[in-house]
UniProtKB/TrEMBL annotation:
Organism: Hymenobacter rigui
Record protein name field: Riboflavin biosynthesis protein RibD
Pathway named in the protein's UniProt entry: Cofactor biosynthesis; riboflavin biosynthesis; 5-amino-6-(D-ribitylamino)uracil from GTP: step 2/4; Cofactor biosynthesis; riboflavin biosynthesis; 5-amino-6-(D-ribitylamino)uracil from GTP: step 3/4
Residues noted as binding Zn(2+) in the record, renumbered to the chain: H54, C81, C90
Active site: E56
Annotated CDD domains: Riboflavin_deaminase-reductase
Positions contributing to substrate binding: R190, D206, L210, R213, E288
Cofactor note (record): Binds 1 zinc ion.
CMP/dCMP-type deaminase domain: residues covered: 5-129
InterPro entries in alphabetical order: APOBEC/CMP_deaminase_Zn-bd (IPR016192), CMP_dCMP_dom (IPR002125), Cytidine_deaminase-like (IPR016193), DHFR-like_dom_sf (IPR024072), Eubact_RibD (IPR004794), RibDG_C (IPR002734), Riboflavin_Biosynth_HTPR (IPR050765)
Cofactor dependence: Zn(2+)
GO biological process terms on file: riboflavin biosynthetic process
Keywords attached to this entry: Hydrolase, Metal-binding, Multifunctional enzyme, NADP, Oxidoreductase, Riboflavin biosynthesis, Zinc
Recorded family membership: In the C-terminal section; belongs to the HTP reductase family.
Length: 346
């Protein structure tokens, strides 16, 4: 039976609330909750930070007339948890408050939950409805679902290219390509992903900091491929300002803020990296280059989303950017003088 317009409106509100936790709840999912009584919102909340109260807890705490919870209808974007983690089970809280109905956007694929939260609610007579705005909920929590279902992080590729298709000058000489608004957007994207990855050549020539400066949000975990440990120790990546992981074929002891992960030369590189990140509960990684890294991930199908910033000026030669054509193009929009093309893996 299709969800009513009111149910969709309330779930959309819960999804909007969930989005406010972007960048702060990982590796937990984004969750929002709205509590209604006779068609009126009486409480709402979202999961604000990893380790803090969940959305249902914050929404219940916001209810100023607790007796109304007995006949309330609760909208939550993800199945209430049924296990003890950093906080007690949210399913138990809803049972304790004797809510009448619970409407859920997505089931939780985490084996610790996976239907148990719903069963707990139904066992005590609480009416449960699922699948309201399910596709929108999966998109919001695409990072969480990818890690849970595919045992790898959600991979976002990003590069800036000129109108004639180059992303660097001859011999990888760095050249300014995108405009000011695009640079701000890139820092926003960095704050939204849990890790950021570059290859040896990009780290060597660009000496990037890979932090968040033009936006407000958490810095990502820095990842760099340095197979033979050839990068200068004076580069920004080794300044200890934020956690950094170096993927290498050579053994080296850790230093403050820098961890070295030795990979096998007998296995493909990127499956090893993604497996290691999954083991660390890293939900997503933003890949900022360079061309060898980007092309390899595209060729192997180890990507989920690509964001291409195309500038209006031409370079006339240099390092060619990867070419995606129209396959998987999801949207495009202007950003100052540049245009952003967003692709999803077909």
């Amino acid at each position: 039976m299709p969800a009513s317009d009111f149910d969709q409106l309330m779930m959309r509100r819960a999804l909007d609330l969930a989005r406010l936790g972007t960048g702060f709840t990982r590796p937990n999912p984004l969750v929002g909750c709205v509590i209604t009584h006779e068609g009126r919102i009486i409480g709402e909340g979202w999961h604000r930070q990893y380790g803090g109260p969940h959305a249902e807890v914050n929404a219940v705490a916001a209810v100023t007339e607790p007796h109304l919870l007995l006949r309330s209808r609760v909208y939550v974007t993800l199945e209430p948890c049924s296990h003890f983690g950093k906080t007690p089970p949210c399913a138990d809280l809803l049972i304790e408050k004797q809510v009448a109905e619970v409407v859920i956007c997505n089931l939780d694929p985490n084996p610790l939950v996976a239907g148990r939260g719903i069963q707990k609610l139904r066992d005590v007579g609480i009416q449960v409805e699922t699948g309201v705005l399910e596709a929108e909920g999966r998109w919001l929590n695409r990072r969480f679902f990818t890690l849970q279902e595919q045992q790898r992080p959600y991979v976002v590729l990003k590069w800036a290219e000129t109108a004639d298709g180059y992303l660097a000058g001859p011999y990888f000489q760095p050249v300014p390509i995108s405009g000011e608004l695009a640079r701000v957007a890139v820092h926003q994207w960095r704050s939204e992903e849990q890790a950021i990855l570059v290859g040896t050549r990009t780290a060597l020539h660009d000496n990037p900091r890979l932090n968040v400066r033009e936006w407000s949000g958490p810095d990502p975990l820095r990842l760099v491929i340095d197979k033979n440990l050839s990068l200068p120790p004076t580069h920004h990546l080794f300044d200890g300002s934020q956690p950094t992981v170096v993927y290498t074929y050579r053994e080296r002891a850790a230093r403050p803020g820098v961890e070295y992960v030795m990979l096998s030369e007998a296995e493909d590189l990127f499956p090893q990296i993604l497996r290691h990140l999954a083991q660390r509960n890293v939900q997503s990684v933003l890949v900022e280059g360079g061309p060898t890294v980007l092309t390899s991930l595209l060729k192997d199908g180890l990507w989920d989303e690509a964001r291409v910033i195309r500038a209006p000026h031409r370079l006339g030669g240099g390092v060619p950017a990867p070419h995606l054509g129209l396959a998987g193009l999801h949207e495009q929009f202007p950003l100052g003088e540049d245009t952003v093309f967003v692709y999803r893996r077909p």
